Amino acid sequence: DNHKLGDFNLEGIPSAPRGVPQIEVTFNIDANGIVHVSAKDLGTGKENKVTITGSTNLSDEEIEKMKKDAEANEAEDKKFKELVEVRNKADMIISSTEKTVEEHGDKVTEEEKTAIKEAVEGLKAVKDGEDKEAIDTAMKTLEEVAHKLAEEIYKEAQEKSQAEQGGAPQGGTKNKADEDVAEAEVVD
């Protein structure tokens, strides 16, 4: 269990979609048990710091009991951590897939788009549950049905890149020797 030591706000961060703001948080505990916390928005440079010097008001016996409880529940805590991590991953996949469908949904058929949206809804339905395997399975299903859209986006980007490279000569001047050169691509 956690015990609140203090709090502070990092204000002035502009509104942005999930995952866009980059916040660097640093925790430092010195030899005297004083906790120094700083948070900095890497985009705006805004920073806030707090120093926590107060004691936890816990006796040595309470601290020892908490240590023993933590050791006894280590396996359960590990399972819970894994569940939280897979839920967070599911949230990120849902968010990025919805954004990708919104921006690039015209690159696939309506049936494929519907399948992607159904897989997103399927993942949403299980992501807050306790079954890690069900969440993993739903994420895998979503990744499989969204693969066609990802392929189309990649193919379009590749074609655009090739068109940009092929449209302008690299050397600026052409001579007879350049015309005899054949281009080839090696594929492993």
Automatic annotation (TrEMBL):
SUPFAM superfamilies per the UniProt record, alphabetical: Heat shock protein 70kD (HSP70), C-terminal subdomain, Heat shock protein 70kD (HSP70), peptide-binding domain
Bilayer-crossing regions: none
Domain of life: Eukaryota
Keywords attached to this entry: ATP-binding, Nucleotide-binding
Molecular function in Gene Ontology: ATP binding; ATP-dependent protein folding chaperone
Region (Disordered): 153-188
Keyword ATP-binding: yes
Composition bias type Basic and acidic residues, residue spans: 153-162
Entry keyword annotation includes Mitochondrion: no
Family: Belongs to the heat shock protein 70 family.
Name of the featured protein: Molecular chaperone DnaK
Natural source organism: Hirondellea gigas
